[in-house]
Design a protein that fits this description.
elongated; alpha/beta; seven-stranded parallel β-sheet; about 270 residues; 2 domains; Arc Repressor Mutant, subunit A
Length: about 270
């Protein structure tokens, strides 16, 4: 079997070492983590070359080494709720419409903070005989005039960037209720690690939300599938439903299907 030859500092596609290292930093920043194996396959060089690149980037202060790979020293800053409301508007509306159709009269449901769950609250404004508990200001604002909906605010410490409540008071309120359905948002979601968020307070609260709910739905548009923008994770229950939009490709959905996750494409 012929051995692959490499010209020092250049990959088989003529990529210079500096350009290759810039690409490594970009990939690690976009995904949060990057493995040696994945980088070698993507950039068309050997794993030993990637390890030398990572050592160089670490020495330059551009990456931090992890077991088997690297992560960006600085990840994307968390987008504010105001910024996220305008993203993927049609996709979020389709997801919210499907989610609202799952809710039955007499149920008690839980809405996470976020723009997509806020869109769901908008869809539920005319509901009757419904109890909605939420940690999100957006959902509260949508339901403030919904006289047929009994609203419970879980309270806690307000995260201004996400306009949602977290912390021990929110967790204590959750411990006193159970829910027929929980609808959660995410900054990213993967089949392997679950829901990705900017802080451990958020992921801890989401795990409690899921534990207190009979049915769990994660509402995310396709751009969030497989994303790892931060390093705080919420583990998923054995059974849950991923609800996304029609732009989700088979490549993005396959890892979830492989783990038996029920997947809904909202149109």
């Amino acid at each position: 079997m012929a051995k692959r030859q490499e010209v020092k500092g250049r990959g088989p596609k003529g990529r210079g070492a500096d350009a290759r290292r810039d690409e490594i930093v970009r990939l690690a920043t976009e995904t949060g983590l990057a493995s040696v194996e994945e980088l070698a396959a993507r950039l068309g060089v050997t794993q030993s070359t990637i390890r030398r690149d990572l050592a160089h980037l670490k020495a330059a202060g551009l990456l931090a080494r992890t077991y088997g790979g690297a992560m960006a020293v600085v990840t994307h800053p968390e987008a504010s709720l105001r910024q996220r409301i305008g993203e993927a508007f049609e996709a979020k509306r389709a997801i919210a419409s499907w989610a609202a159709a799952q809710v039955r009269p007499g149920e008690t449901i839980l809405l996470d903070s976020g723009s997509t769950t806020g869109a769901l609250a908008h869809e539920l404004r005319n509901a009757a005989d419904l109890t909605v508990a939420t940690t999100g200001l957006t959902a509260l604002q949508e339901l403030v005039g919904a006289t047929g909906v009994h609203v419970e605010c879980l309270g806690g410490t307000l995260r201004h960037v996400s306009q949602g409540f977290v912390g021990p008071l929110a967790e204590a309120a959750l411990s006193r209720m159970t829910f027929d359905r929980a609808f959660l948002g995410a900054d990213g979601v993967t089949a392997e690690d679950g829901i990705c968020e900017a802080s451990l307070q958020q992921t801890r609260l989401k795990e409690l939300m899921m534990a207190r709910s009979q049915h769990v739905y994660v509402l995310v548009h396709a751009a969030k599938l497989g994303r790892r923008p931060f390093h705080a994770w919420a583990r998923m229950p054995d059974r849950w439903t991923l609800v996304t939009d029609a732009s989700a490709t088979d490549d993005l959905l396959e890892p979830f299907a492989a783990r038996g996750v029920e997947t809904v494409i909202a149109i």
